[in-house]
Amino acid sequence: MSTYAFQLGRQRDLSQEEIAAVFIQKHVHISHSRLVGEYLLVSVDTPIDGAELMHQLGGTRLIGEKLDPKGNAEETVFSYLSTLPSDQKLHFSVSGGTHASKLAIAVKKKLKKIGRSVRYVETKNTATILHNNLVAKGSHLTIIDNVVYVTRAIQPIEEMSERDYGRPSIDDKSGMLPPKLARIMINLAMPKKEDTLLDPFCGSGTLLGEAMSLGMEHIIGSDISERAIDDTTKNLNWLKEKLACSNLTLKIFKKDRKH
Q1: Same domain for 69 and 194
Q2: What stretches pass through the bilayer (predicted)?
Q3: pLDDT at position 257, please?
């Protein structure tokens, strides 16, 4: 059995429901789950691919996998980090409350005693983890109830930001739906990729764009506003090119909800 920690977003209830919906879609059986602060701890019968799962989720900030304990939390962190490649300087970070920093400094001293070149990175947010490449290095750890989890994936904040603020057309009045929330909404509906997704009030196309990025093949959008249709068309054509969608059927048109 494998146990994972999901750091939930601001809307924790929605984030939990989204995780449950995606697990159902992927036929992953949850043996046990419990909420500890902002973390949902989930035990499953078979290992999951954290990076693949994070690519689909909208309401999860981080996914960590439980490490086998080697004594207390400090001993587990030291034991794990000491096994990482020693041919270059080790950059690591530990999250998990007020005691995490003290634990990390103690571990750093132990690592130096065995001859490791090491730097402790103080984690402020997921951007710190991203910019220090700690996920790829396997060196960001989180302590929850004295149990240590190694981070397997973090929310692709730069990709989501680009889809939100980097798209060609933005309307502050009709296009205020955040991509994260749009993605949660889609996942809660549990559509199949071959299903058709319709947004009859498409605004600037945020919901449709997230459906496209999730690989849905049939997307329809309409709105009463000519400006909205123009914005949606520009945004989705831009995203379609970036994603290199090949099996996409896309229809956008102006329509009153009554007709």
Answers
A1: no
A2: none
A3: 61
